[in-house]
Amino acid sequence: MKWIRFTLETHTDAVDILSYMLDEIGVEGIEIEDHIPLTEEEKRQMYVDILPDPEENDGSAKVHFYMEPEKCNPDTVIMQVQNIFQEIKSYTNIGKGTVSLSETEDKDWVNNWKTFFKPFRAADNVVIKPTWETTNVEDYAPEKDVVVEIDPGIAFGTGTHETTKLCIQALSQWGCKDKRIFDIGCGSGILAIAALKLGASFACATDIDEVAVDVAGENMEINGLKPEQYQLYAGDLIENVAKDHSYTFSAPTATERSVNGKKLSELAGGGYDIVTANILADVIIPLSAVVRPHMAENGIFISSGIIDEKADEVETALLQNGFTILEKTSIKEWVCFVCK
């Protein structure tokens, strides 16, 4: 099905009143493009750190809305929008105040992204493969490569993000053979699965998001891993701990399926040879204060999800909590620490 896409070039000052007046002429929803920085409250709801917008906020904005060709007269709609601009320009900045139209096709946005998710090499001996693709990677060698099959659903973790690659490369480099793994913030389960396929004897994986834990369990099964090889929990390990740190992320409200921080810590237990946390800097900072009891005497802590502008804060927290930095690696703007 095809849709007519109307694009209004305007100013951010006019967006709210435009939204109201477009609703009055029958527009059921709008899409807004602008460069207004996120507020601190909005950042608290984010799962990951985001890169700064490369474009400064100049006040410009685009408002898009869509209509079915059979149910609208484009010329009439354009005239209505122009009349709105004329009406409001006396008391608000309308910017360019222009309207244009284009044609777009209806797409399956839930699954359309799969077209771009192809098998790739995440480390020298680790290949990530979507469940719907065949293993087709240059230099693929079945005798040395492990293949991790992933269907992330709506959970974070396809392996394509730089931070996930950094963690997988660290797991490969430092070795997982016969080791116990604790993956905090597991998302799709990709790190725990990679570790198990690299020879780990057991993996415990947790996430604050129950949906992510369900997805991780499905991916464990897809990869042929046995239930006795892993344990999954939903819960927030730093609940009631992060208040003394710069923890800004607001975790989802706990439900009867999830457990609180103290209970999760008890369930997870200790003695892990490798702990991984591919989350974000503002979570890793307080996590560094409570993760040590879960680690074996000579265990290592692999942390990423860290944007470079916050790397110094994370490093300071790690050192203050008694860790020794063994390695610091980066890809583009993202950083990974390996410490003990």
Name some characteristics of this structure.
Rossmann fold; alpha/beta; elongated; 340 residues; seven-stranded mixed beta sheet; 14 strands; 2 domains; 27% helix; Alpha-Beta Plaits
CATH fold annotation of the largest domain: Rossmann fold
| Helix count from the secondary structure assignment | 10
Main sheet: strands, sense, barrel: 7 strands, mixed
- Domains, number: 2
Order of helices and strands: EHEHEHEHEEEHEHEHEHEHEHEE
Could you explain how this protein is built, in words?
With about 350 residues, the chain is α/β, with parallel strands linked by helices. It has two domains: about 1-105, Alpha-Beta Plaits (2-Layer Sandwich), CATH 3.30.70.120; about 175-340, Rossmann fold (3-Layer(aba) Sandwich), CATH 3.40.50.150. About 25% of the residues lie in helices and about 25% in strands. It has helices at about 15-25, 40-45, 75-90, 110, 160-175, 190-195, 210-220, 260-270, 280-285, 310-320; strands at about 1-10, 30-35, 60-65, 100-105, 120-125, 125-130, 145-150, 180-185, 200-205, 230-235, 270-280, 295-305, 325-330, 335-340. Strands 10-9-8-11-12-14-13 form a seven-stranded mixed sheet, with helices on both faces. The chain has a four-stranded antiparallel sheet with strand order 2-3-1-4, covered by helices on one side. A hairpin with a 2-residue loop joins strand 13 and strand 14 (about 335-340). Helix 5 packs parallel to helix 6 and helix 9 runs parallel beside helix 10. The longest helix is centred in the first third of the chain and has 15 residues, at about 75-90. It is elongated. The chain starts with a strand and ends with a strand.
